[in-house]
Amino acid sequence: MGTGLKRKDLLGTRDLSPEEIGLILDTAISMKEIASRDIKKVPTLRGKTIINLFYEPSTRTRTSFEIAGKWMSADVINISTSSSSVVKGETLKDTGLTLQAMHPDVVVIRHSAAGAPQILAGLLKASVINAGDGAHEHPTQALLDLFTIREKRGTLAGLKVAIVGDILHSRVARSNIFAMQKMGMQVRVCGPATMLPRYMDRLGVEVFSRIEPAIADVDIIMMLRIQLERQGGGLFPTLREYSKLFGLNLDRLKAAKQDVLIMHPGPINRGVEISPEVADGPYSLILNQVENGVAIRMAVLYLLAGGQAAAN
Amino acid sequence: MRILIEGGRVIDPANKVDAVLDVCIEDGRIAALGPQPPAKNAAPPDRVLDARGKVVCPGFVDLHVHLREPGREDKETIVTGTRAAARGGFTSVCCMPNTNPVNDNQSVTEFILDRARKAGAVNVFPVGAITKGQQGEELAEIGELVRAGCVAISDDGKPVMNAEIMRRALEYAGMFGIPVIQHAEDLHMTGKGVMHEGLVSTELGLQGIPAASEAVIVARDILLAELTGSHFHVAHVSTAEAIRLIREAKAKGLHVTCEVTPHHFATTDEAVRSFSTNAKMSPPLRSSRHVEALKVGLTDGTIDAIATDHAPHTVQEKEQEFDYAPNGIIGLETAFGLTMTVLVEGEVLTLNQAIARLTSGPARIFNLPKGTLSVGADADVTILDPTREWVVDVRKSASKSRNSPFHGWKLRGEVLATIVEGKVVWELEG
Amino acid sequence: MPGGPMSQRREKAQILDAAGITRAITRIAHEIVERNNGVQDIVLVGLRSRGVDLAHRIAVKLEEIEGTKVPVGALDITLYRDDLGKAETQPVVRRTEIPFAINDKKVVLVDDVLYTGRSCRAAMDALMDLGRPRLLQLAVLVDRGHRELPIRADYVGKNMPTSHQEQVQVLLTEEDGVDRVVILEETAD
């Protein structure tokens, strides 16, 4: 006899236990098989309603949740800022109360303000899944990253990973740091000093301001997207200089392990943080990450749907 | 009208009094302290308050409140704000100029004083703006503000970023002997920051406000105080570095003073973990290292006063995403309980020292004729039970607003009665 | 509450021992051959988890009888259950591993116990999503009655009338280290 997640919401990886992470990853293995079928649909969430509430534009994450829900036969409704009352200045609280009146089972939220999913979770009976809030967390991205790594390496504990880029503004970095550490991985971060939050070392990660030593002996290199609009904002002078100092190219990769895995949460800026040869190279897992995203989100939807019964 | 407060432990730091004494109030002034002389032909007192086992002290003086009137009467009014003050044991409050319109001219000052005289529960001392419209560009008519009744100047909430303007403000205010209060914060460093930059902000991904953002302005303005010889007062000091700079300035004999808020010594940035917007204020709640430094500053006298920075906001404003919610919390009614629970119980201050930071300390640095039980002084008196336990319930607040992070906290030390110029303006029931 | 997590159960009777299980499997294998005129196009699909073990045992017997290896797949029906969010605890999703096409095959579903028929219903739905078999048959080690759906097994190791309060437990060496089938009943305590 197994058991679901003993929680209503998935707001971050920081408050997940290693057992919960393991359960989600294990469940995703079964979900991934469904993607290989001719008929990509199981009736598991028939009659359940999932609302994708996106306050920030996102194609891949929203689509991934939408496919995950639809493959499990849930009704999936997308609400984005451009097509809802959000633009009319409705508060998150009122939006939440309005949604509650429609009795959704799961609300997936993407928001530019950290903590917005917490507000929603407090308002709704439905399960709330954080699909990225400000620079805070993006738990399903971290889970799919772990899944992808485990799929390639068979294990997580003991692996070394270097996360390179704008750590300061990255919710992907935060969720990955918390989750990877829980699973026994060693995490390094690397980026311009202006984009490395102070006190990073107190999270138990090693901090590098040069990429060469950071990637020298790691099993995984995770490149983060550099936000083009941050150029000239005082954090780094130009993309050209950033690319020269921190971009991952074939030349730099020679310093890394032969079988190092390359990851990127996407969307990538080809030729800026990662060169096309590396992004499309044999050790690049970038497309595996996208594929596994659906399986992870199916697993999370399934486990939260059952978790509600356990909580009742 | 005669009131006799009988048998209480009278603590009056201004006069170094700590003894069981009766306090006799006549016609709004302190008439006598000590065992009541046998009445000759005098009528018995109109009111006798039994203070046996309680503490009787000067009414508290708050150097930093926002009464929101004129302009934001939906958050607070002079009536409700001064009622909240009375419940908190405060008999005098200094109200900040960031009203709408800004208190940068005598007509606004006169409006506030007129409303306070007619409807206020406690004494109100307005603080005028340093610059017109708090824009940080042109000096306000500081002389007119002082003449109308302002006791200090500040562009509170909008730090004076231009050092030249700050220099001139200090020089000009020096002519009138009033302090220039600075909300010390380098706005460029703060940027879009919403909480203290530290481990918690790193984990939460909220933009941080570094401690140095406060200290660099404190350092600059101490230099300007040295240059001008004027009185520079640091509002709501919150960082170890600022405390260090102020301590050094005082040791050099500069006229530099500062205040601390109860929330900055009672809580840390850990309170933000829940994304509660009642943990959002400016300056932000700091880490425990800074809180410890504030306590040392209280113990060694670097910090002159405890001030609340009472900042009412409506529920709908605070019920927003953390990034969008306004800064500030209400604090008048919880100040004494937090001072007793955190500072006195925590052996940071003695009871006498704590009362001094709420009475004689603030009155002295702003030259207010308050904070004392001297015979002949205004009869502003607060009666306290320093050990009584109570639970904070914001729903019962006299303030119009409810934005307190201390709802549900169990505190020791409660205000039993507040007397302003011989009139009982607040009494705890039961 | 019967079946609730607080109830205690104790063994009431053993209905099959190791030899009995082997005999039942042998008989089922012979019946499959007989009914289908051999094992041409036969594939076995076991329901996780003991149905898979039984399917493998039947496959061994079929090979003994016919000299042909019969493919065996494993089916997890968790995603097809009709009690999501209703069960006390949520079942773990396990992998469906059917490494062969079932289109136009004669699929024999294998499960340990046939009871309400709901698992079998879920299994049929799951199988239909994977392809279009030519026909579908059902083999179970124990049929304990109490059907809630119009479902009937084609091959039964043992018919065992039971009450709702009882539980039939199939123990197999692959999972449990021993081969036996027992009836458990609730105790008052």
- Average predicted local confidence, pLDDT of chain B: 96
In whole angstroms, the N-to-C terminal distance of chain B is: 24 Å
Q: What is the strand tally of chain A?
A: 9
* Gross CATH architecture of the largest domain in chain B: Alpha-Beta Barrel
Topology readout:
The complex is a heterotrimer of chains A (312), B (430) and C (189).
Chain A: H1 18-35, E1 49-54, H2 60-71, E2 75-80, H3 92-100, E3 106-111, H4 116-123, E4 127-133, H5 139-153, E5 160-164, H6 171-182, E6 186-190, E7 206-208, H7 211-215, E8 220-223, H8 239-246, H9 250-253, E9 261-263, H10 276-279, H11 286-311
Parallel strand pairs in A: 1-2, 1-3, 3-4, 5-6, 5-8, 6-7, 8-9
Chain B: E1 2-12, E2 17-26, E3 29-33, E4 47-50, E5 55-58, E6 60-65, H1 78-87, E7 90-95, H2 106-119, E8 123-128, H3 142-148, E9 152-154, H4 163-174, E10 180-182, H5 187-190, E11 195-196, H6 199-204, E12 208-209, H7 212-228, E13 232-234, H8 240-251, E14 256-260, H9 262-266, H10 288-299, E15 305-306, H11 315-318, H12 335-344, H13 351-358, H14 360-365, E16 381-391, E17 410-420, E18 423-427
Parallel strand pairs in B: 1-4, 1-5, 6-7, 7-8, 8-9, 9-10, 10-13, 11-12, 13-14, 14-15
Antiparallel strand pairs in B: 1-2, 2-3, 5-16, 16-17, 17-18
Chain C: E1 9-16, H1 18-36, E2 42-47, H2 50-66, E3 72-75, E4 106-114, H3 118-130, E5 135-143, E6 155-159, E7 167-171, H4 173-176, E8 180-186
Parallel strand pairs in C: 2-3, 2-4, 4-5, 5-6
Antiparallel strand pairs in C: 1-8, 7-8
Helix pairs in contact in C: 1-2
